[in-house]
């Protein structure tokens, strides 16, 4: 099995992240009817998976350091299957909530571990593209969830929508049985023969595999020294943490998931008619997300991280102002519907070209080797925590201050994100991880 095929199997973790977070937007209108949900309960149902994800993200780093990447991904795949089935057959709301918490825990672990596994199996030259495959699969998962939602938009269809997440879970489980453990994890645990065998499967040319193993071992040796230094420097070493956690929060408080999770509700509020029309409009948004992520993947190593982030954030702020103004002016369905659809598409496009992929990429780059696991875990936890806060407050804000002002609030956060990026986020394009680390030491 080639490296690309192995990466594709692991990136199913991203597909599940996308599908299982996106599907709630298609299912929500039907769940609202089936369980007579209030605004608060809709927020809660959307949010329980996010709470589960935050907890999963904290545990993932430790579990996978202790037991290996592969066994943890296998368990997570099983949890995805279980959570999907429980949600699908739920006779009452409480069982549905249990199913969604299970799925959420799976999403949290996958969101942290998929990029780590991908980075650790990738040949150094292609690492950027391989890690970004995760975000591409997230956006494809979201799009598929919308299409499934469209096809199944009838009263009891929500059961299939939630249950179908079990299918990629099953494929991930079977696929992970056939892929090797991360060579980096194996070498880090003194299992050099197994690490070599894994590298041989990934690289096919024994000379390349041996050269990489030698490099890996030299790196681990260096890492042991770096760790001691890093422990000493830890108290001064807040900058990557501030940037990682800051970007994690900015990625969420600028409102992306109000669109990803609640797009049908937003389109309804803007006057689009039936459930299936709103879901179809939502699928258009999902397609923009996929296409612009591909554009970002092609640009990120040429234009750099900062230009993409800054352009994305400025574009998001502008689109949100148009969206907010559309809602403030009100007016009848047709015109407002168009303004809403176009500005939402522009907003998602700007997110997909910047904050979407670049956040996950940067948190795999900016932390020094010795603190990378903990740093990534902290940023991932902050990302899910902020996601939860936004999901819990969005529908309440809409009820309280109205859609127009709500989108202006997200526009202000986008501008804040622009200033944060401009002043703090370093350019990492073309640098080795060691150079990035050395840059921190210089600026201390
Ligand atoms: C974010 C998710 C979001 C997705 C949308 C990811 O980078 O972390 O919260 O739903 O992008 O494409």
Which class in CATH terms? Mainly Alpha
Counted beta strands: 0
Q: Low-confidence parts, pLDDT < 50 over ≥5 residues?
A: none
The number of distinct structural domains comes to 1
Spatial gap, N to C terminus? 44 Å
> Which second-level CATH architecture applies?
Up-down Bundle
Mean pLDDT: 87
- What is the CATH superfamily? MFS general substrate transporter like domains
* Number of distinct helices: 20
CATH topology: Growth Hormone, Chain: A
Distinct ligands: beta-D-glucopyranose
Describe, in plain words, how this protein is organized in 3D.
- This protein has 444 residues and is an all-alpha fold.
- It has a single domain (3-442), classed as MFS general substrate transporter like domains (Growth Hormone, Chain: A).
- It is built from 20 helices and no strands.
- The longest helix has 30 residues, at 372-401.
- The chain is globular and about 65 Å long.
- The structure holds beta-D-glucopyranose.
- Beta-D-glucopyranose binds next to helix 6, helix 13, helix 17 and helix 18.
């Amino acid at each position: 099995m080639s490296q690309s095929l192995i990466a594709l199997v692991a990136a199913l973790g991203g597909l599940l992240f996308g599908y299982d977070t996106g599907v709630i937007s298609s299912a929500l209108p039907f769940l609202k009817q089936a369980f007579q949900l209030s605004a608060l309960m809709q927020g809660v149902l959307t949010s329980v998976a996010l709470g589960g994800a935050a907890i999963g993200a904290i545990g993932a780093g430790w579990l996978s350091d202790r037991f290996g990447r592969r066994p943890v991904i296998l368990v997570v795949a099983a949890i995805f299957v279980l959570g999907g089935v429980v949600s699908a057959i739920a006779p009452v709301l409480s069982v549905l909530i249990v199913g969604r918490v299970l799925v959420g825990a799976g999403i949290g672990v996958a969101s942290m571990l998929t990029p780590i596994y991908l980075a650790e199996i990738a040949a150094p030259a292609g690492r950027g593209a391989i890690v970004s495959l995760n975000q591409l699969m997230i956006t494809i998962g979201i799009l598929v969830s919308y299409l499934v939602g469209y096809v199944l938009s009838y009263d009891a269809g929500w059961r299939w929508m939630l249950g179908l997440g079990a299918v990629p879970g099953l494929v991930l489980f079977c696929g992970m049985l056939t892929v090797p453990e991360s060579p980096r994890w194996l070498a880090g645990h003194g299992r050099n023969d197994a690490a070599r065998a894994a590298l041989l499967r990934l690289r096919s040319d024994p000379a390349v595999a041996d050269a990489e193993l030698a490099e890996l071992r030299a790196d681990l040796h260096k890492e042991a020294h770096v760790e001691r230094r890093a422990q000493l420097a830890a108290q001064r070493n807040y900058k990557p943490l501030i940037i990682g956690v800051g970007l994690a929060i900015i990625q969420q408080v600028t409102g992306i998931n109000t669109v990803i999770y609640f797009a049908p509700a937003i389109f309804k509020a803007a006057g689009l008619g039936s459930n299936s029309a709103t879901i179809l409009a939502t699928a258009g948004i999902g397609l923009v997300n996929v296409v612009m992520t591909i554009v970002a993947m092609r640009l990120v190593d040429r234009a750099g991280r900062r230009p993409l982030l800054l352009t994305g954030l400025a574009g998001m702020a502008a689109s949100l102002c148009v969206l907010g103004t559309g809602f403030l002016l009100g007016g009848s369905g047709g015109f407002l519907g168009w303004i809403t659809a176009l500005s939402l598409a522009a907003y998602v496009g700007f997110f997909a070209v910047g904050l979407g992929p670049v956040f996950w990429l940067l948190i795999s780059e900016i932390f020094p080797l010795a603190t990378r696991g903990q740093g990534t875990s902290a940023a991932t936890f902050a990302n899910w925590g902020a996601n939860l806060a936004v999901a819990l407050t969005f529908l309440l804000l809409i009820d309280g201050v109205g859609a127009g002002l709500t989108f202006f609030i997200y526009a202000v956060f986008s501008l804040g994100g622009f200033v944060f990026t401009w002043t703090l986020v370093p350019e990492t394009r073309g640098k080795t991880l060691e150079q990035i680390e050395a840059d921190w030491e210089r600026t201390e």
